[in-house]
Amino acid sequence: MAEPVFKIRDLCFSYGELPVLRDFNLTLEGGHFHGVLGPNGSGKSTLLDLMTANLKAAAGQVFFQGREVVEIPPAGLAARLALAPQDYSMHFPFTVREIVSMGRHPHIPRFASPQAEDLAAVDRAMREMAITHLADQQVTELSGGEKQRVALARTLAQDTEVILLDEPTASLDVNHSLSVLRGLERRVNQEGRTVVAVMHDIGLAAAFCDRLVLIKQGRAHAAGPTDQVLNQQSIWEVYGVRARVAWDDYAGCRVVTLQKPEGEK
C-alpha cells in the first residue's frame, strides 16, 4: 500500500491562550479531492498552515509523504506541495503573467531563465483560470474575483503533485466557481494529483470532493468518502443545522438542502 500523502498525529496548536487544534489526527490518501469543512474558527486554515510548515505545532507531528514536514527543506517542499492561501492580497503593480510566473520559482535554478516547460505551465494555468486575456494587465487594476483567479493560477503553475487551497472560490461568482472546481477535479481524476481544499459551501464540496474531513472544535469529527461522511446527522453534529443530502440525477451529484431556521419565511 502506498504511503499516505499526509499523516497527522496528535496535533495541537494555540494562538496564545486560545486553543485551535486539539489532539488532531488525520490520514489523507493521495489521488483524491479532499474537502475540509467546519464552522468558522474550527481550525481549518490553521491546519493547512501546519501541513505546509508555515506554522509549527505545539505538540504532535505532520508527516508529508512519510517524512515530517518541518524537516523538509523549503525549496524541496515547494517543488512537491503548493498552497493557495486565503489572503491573496496583491499590492505591487506586477502584470498578471508576472504573478503567475512566480509559481515556477521552485523549479527554476537560481539565475537561470524559464524554460519551455515553465512557460507551458504558466500558459496552462492561465487558461484554466480564464485569465489569459488579462496577461499584460497590472494586478492592482483587477477586481477581487480576478485577483483570486490570478492567485489560483500561480499555485497551479507551480505544477506540484499535491495542491492545498484555502477557500478557493470565496470571491468567485457561480460560473467561475464551477470552472475552478472542474479544473481541480480534472487534475485529480486525469493526472492523479491530490487536492486538499478548505471550503465553506457544503453543496460545492458534496458535488466535487470525493473525500471529506469534517472539523468540529479543533478535532477531526469525521473523515472519509463523501457519501459516507456527509449526511443529515453529521451536518447537524458539526454545524447545528438541519439538512437533507440526496443524489440528484439532473445535477449528476449529491445535493445538500438546508432547512431554514424556525421563524424565517
Task: Give an account of the 3D structure.
- With 265 residues, the chain is α/β, with parallel strands linked by helices.
- It contains nine helices and twelve strands.
- The strands form three sheets. It has a six-stranded mixed beta sheet, with helices on both faces.
- Helix 4 packs antiparallel against helix 5 (144-157).
- The model has no long low-confidence stretch (mean pLDDT 93).
Supply database-style keywords.
31% helix, alpha/beta, six-stranded mixed sheet, four-stranded antiparallel sheet, globular, 265 residues
> What's the tally of helices?
9
Q: Given the helix and strand composition, which structural class is it?
A: alpha/beta
Distance between the termini: 52 Å
What is the number of E strands?
12
Q: What fraction, in percent, of the residue positions are helical?
A: 25-40%
Principal-axes geometry comes out as globular
Sheet with the most strands: spatial strand order: 6-7-8-3-9-10
Strand content: 25-35%
**Mean of all residue-level pLDDT scores:** 93
